Amino acid sequence: MLTDSQHSPRVLIVDDVPDNLAVLHDALDESGYTVLVALDGESALQRAAQAQPDIVLLDAMMPGMDGFEVARRLKANPATSHIPIIFMTGLTDTEHLVAALAAGGVDYVTKPIKPKEVLARMQVHMQGARQVRQSRHALDAFGYASITVRASDGRLMWQTPLARELLAHYFGGPATHASQTPAPVLAWLREHLPAAREQHVEPPRLVVESGARRLSFSLHQQLGGEDNTAEADDWLIVMREVSDAALIDSLALAFKLTAREAEVLYWVIQGKINRDIGDILGASPATVKKHLERIFAKLGVETRTSAAGMALGRMRALHPQWEI
């Protein structure tokens, strides 16, 4: 029995028959769960999105929106797609049980409901879901965000809080509220899937730039098949952002440059021409040229190649982990 109410897991029971709710509610409450209830599909979707339960017990046959549709919508929403769903059904025909699993359920129990059986099934699936959730949020804690993408239709099945912030910055706010993967990321994934599937070759990273910030995408692994919580077409992608603001500051200190001169030298190291640097910094190529002349004087060099070489040597000495 669970005793710590502050950390007690939350379960959402969805059933249009109050008597069914009462039986389960009492058994789960006595076992230390925080119990949420919904009498119809629309209420279930709202409660799940707001309360983020650890597991959902879902009646398959309900008037209006049935349990199969509720499950499909929960799985289509990145905010609730990770929640395990156990179907409660009086239907034992194989086609109905297959439909329950196809809609996103991880398991099912048959009516009349036996509370002890439900509790045992819940423990199994909640433990697996908790481990997955903890590992994903651990990535965030160390600066590695993660997303799960369904390659077939491009749906964004899961994103950690850090991933949501990064996608908003690099691809715009609306993309983070939709369930669709940003187009460049999906194109990269689909391009390299044949090699990943057939040859188990890790594809080259996708790198997206935003000023001095870079976001890299690495294909981590294919999901599904082991715990039945994801389809085999779902792929876990790990994201890592690198900001070179500290490098720009180091350039300024090392060579006694102004902040703008350090930015210009940074982009020279990156191989950008004056026109590109001007576009990035919001300046004209002529202004960039004047900054370069002052940089050459301070570094005691005459060409951008020499300036880049000197700066690279200093950066690698100060930041051994840094790569262009």
From TrEMBL:
CDD domains reported for this sequence: LuxR_C_like, REC_PA4781-like
InterPro entries documented for this protein: CheY-like_superfamily, Sig_transdc_resp-reg_C-effctor, Sig_transdc_resp-reg_receiver, Tscrpt_reg_LuxR_C, WalR-like, WH-like_DNA-bd_sf
PTM sites of type 4-aspartylphosphate: D59
Source domain of life: Bacteria
Record carries keyword Cell division: no
Pfam families: GerE, Response_reg
Domain HTH luxR-type span(s) in chain numbering: 250-315
Response regulatory domain location: 10-126
PROSITE patterns assigned: HTH_LUXR_2, RESPONSE_REGULATORY
Annotated SMART domains: HTH_LUXR (SM00421), REC (SM00448)
UniProt key word NADP: no
Entry keyword set: DNA-binding, Phosphoprotein, Transcription, Transcription regulation, Two-component regulatory system
Protein name (Swiss-Prot/TrEMBL): Response regulator
Organism of this sequence: Roseateles koreensis
